[in-house]
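pasting for ref. prot 1 ->
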Amino acid sequence: MKYTIVAMIAILGTTTLFAANDAEKIFDNKCNMCHIKTRPQHHSNLVAPPIMGVLYHVKQAYSNKKDAVAFIVDYVREPSKSKALCMPQKIKHFGLMPSQKANISKEDLQKVASWLYDTYPPANFKHKGMRH
């Protein structure tokens, strides 16, 4: 019995790790070309807000993971100014995010959104906004 429990915990931990790695790979292939995962050294070459800043605003608006993931999935598939959580000057600077409905499946987007919620922003993150 003891070994069964240990084996189950190991399997669940491995499954969670693979799911996180899978979600990060999806993000890297579908999202990272616009939303970088690190704090930018130069803001002038950004094409979209860094993902840590995006998740900072998502978590301010949605205190639980289920609602935050639902928001991310909805927004990425059907973005609009009325749904946007970023500061208005971000939309003015970057433009409204184009719909990604044709570029990522809803299932993959849910994986990515869950991983993003669990990963960003990092514990030491301090929101500074965009400098011009």
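and prot 2 ->
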Amino acid sequence: MSRSRPYIRPVETLWWARSPYLAYTLREATGVAVLGYALVLLAGVVCLATGERAYDVWLDFLKSPWSLSLHTWTWFRILPKTMPRLVIGGRVLPQIRITAGGVAVAAASFIFIVFVAVWTQP
């Protein structure tokens, strides 16, 4: 009998970049964002326990443009995933279009509010 060598499957270096695994990897990477949000909330609880001044500083951080824009973006990215499918003309509207529409409405509202604030000043 001849002894053949066993088959050894080659190891792929970027296995996680293949299509089915990439979606899984990206979904699991959202755990980092959840950790970040948990740390922000924990910092708020610590600031609340520290005193009113520390809590006010934490609230000011949350009111910063960077924080608000990040929150707005994540809100509009999550919204289509949590709502029922939107069917227009017999076709399902893609999630990215719902997100883009929400961001466009938010931007238009912001511009309108700023315009009204400037227009109504004496």
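The CA atoms of residues 111 and 117 lie 10 Å apart.
The radius of gyration is 24 Å.
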